[in-house]
Specification:
Tetracycline Repressor, domain 2, globular, mainly alpha
């Protein structure tokens, strides 16, 4: 694709965000993951362990499709202020979603109320593209091994928070 064609479709930061949203969640927009039908269905699952496993499957598919775009966005953010601002906005939205997810863990009795903020931070790290890339791309784990690891982290989230009160 030529540079002029790219420029006709919008600035780099807008294209990167749109590409990420489309590949990660299936559509574009600033709405929360918790408002998307696939996640509503997962969060409504009555059995918590089944819901966690389904969420991990969702994340695996999403990270397979979008982790490369996130890496490209981070690389571009080093030299482009608009891309950096778009990436930081994306991270704020991810944190909002992880706070919703932490509330889900609280509602399910998996964490305490005083752990919600910490759980949101930990969930943001665990479920993001960096662990996916580290384990599957850099370290060569197969998807099944990554899945087992991530499910264990989420099932035992309270023990993994490191905060005891």
């Amino acid at each position: 694709m030529s540079v002029p064609t790219v420029h006709l479709n919008g600035p780099k930061h807008a294209l990167l965000i749109a590409a990420f949203e489309r590949t990660f969640a299936g559509d574009e927009g600033r709405h929360s993951l918790a408002e998307r039908p696939a996640l509503i269905e997962i969060m409504s699952e009555p059995d918590t362990d089944t819901a966690i496993a389904r969420y991990v499957d969702f994340l695996i598919d999403a990270n397979q499709r979008s982790a490369g775009i996130v890496r490209a966005m981070l690389a571009a953010a080093d030299s482009d202020d608009e891309v950096r601002a778009a990436y930081l906005d994306l991270e704020q939205r991810r944190h909002r979603d992880m706070t919703i997810a932490a509330g889900w863990f609280l509602d399910r009795g998996r964490i305490r109320a005083d752990q919600v903020a910490l759980a949101a931070d930990v969930l943001g790290l665990l479920t993001g593209p960096d662990p996916w890339t580290h384990f599957t791309v850099v370290r060569g784990w197969d998807v099944a091994s990554y899945r087992v690891w991530l499910i264990a982290q989420l099932v035992h989230l309270a023990e993994n928070l490191g905060a005891t009160s």
